Amino acid sequence: MSRRPQLHDVHDERGADFTDFGGWDMPVEFDGIRTEHEAVRERAGRFDVSHMGQIEVSGPDAAELCARLTTRDVAATGPGAVRYAAITDEDGVMLDDTMVTVLPEGADADLLFVPNAGHDAEMHDRWVAHRDEWDLDATVENDTEEYAMFAVQGPDAEALVADVAGEEAASLDFLAARYADVAGARCLVSRTGYTGEDGFELVLPGEAAADVWAAFDCQPCGLGARDTLRLEAGFLLSGQDFHPEELPRTPLEAGIDFAVDLEHDFVGVDAIREQAAAGVDQRFVGLVLEERGVPRNGYPIETPDGEEVGLVTSGTMSPTLEEPIGLGYVDVVHGAPGTEVAVVVRGQPKKARIEALPFVE
Amino acid sequence: MDFEVPDDCRYLESHEWVRVEEGVATVGISDFAQDELGDIVFVELPEVGDRVETGDAFGVIESIKAVSDLYAPVSGEVVDRNETLFDEPELVNESPFDDGWLLAVDLDDEGELDDLLDADEYAAQIE
Question: What DSSP state is assigned to residue A272?
Fold first, then answer.
């Protein structure tokens, strides 16, 4: 039995198509991926992302526990900060990526981190096991089922948030969070997102989901548009652009060096320091197909001479650029923007070039 | 949702249609199929002069979210293909039974059509 967001029936009545994602039955499309994608790039869209995990960590050692299990010490940034980080194993391989929020004053917990769909139980257990092993004083709660999470993204998001959550929430800096009342419910509002547009994410009590969702008067969007938007922004998708068993990658290989603080100690830091000194063999890149076709997960990347030098991990026809774009890993010598390569589409090499990320600013 | 299922076509269970006029079969995908696929962005078709065989994959159609094989409802030689789709694949979404046609095939055997679903049978399948 798959898990369902609180508003499953509301989305169904609105005409959504659903798909299984990370064990959740989620809306994939309301009015078409292109329509929803364009709404977010030009105006605003709202996403129900209640499949994202919600793990709250509290207590005297909450900050230390989170710092030692993620690639940066977010708690040191201070209350109201939100930062992206990776969760790595002893070998520096990414198990998942996450946003960590240092909860503002007056919260019931100290830190909140948001693992990807289907990873919530695993990450909860990982935190508990390490807390016990390190004998730290912290409580770890998996509140994924209690909370709903929405994203409001696009150039009009600020005005929408100002209307329903107030000016203080709407004037948040990028990567900052505060509490605000929306439709009578206390929501954690962050200036964050996964689309490459300005926008906000809200974590709220599940029982308030219908009222908060209805408060935002903009295009409802499904996971299909969420994927094309994040692809244009060059953001990683956990489980597809990296996977601990099927596609083990370190944060340096995945190109998120900015989210790794090698000065602090965390599980996997030794391996990552070693790799930082030696350099990576392959690196995460963007690519654009110059012939007809669409790059897709699993397609090989070759040199123009036919030597295999990498792998596509995500791809689509970019709705904004109207060009076929992809993300993947290539040997660093072939990774510079402008390098001519080929993507093998059903056995046929198609001309492509490496492109700097993000595809869309 | 109501999908168009023209009476003058025959259908494969995999949602391709065929319409025969003077021994030439025009092939496409159904209204239901284009809706399931969503925004279509790429079509790969055989060359004129190639042969297609009933039930075999003859090409590929891709929407933003998925890649699907196209199956031939009939056997014969390809006598035309809709190259407009290479620049405007969205025609398959907009007009699946007319402007969004895929191939024209010189039929080997018109008797093959009897093995396909008629409009009522296909409409029942997608209900």
Answer: H
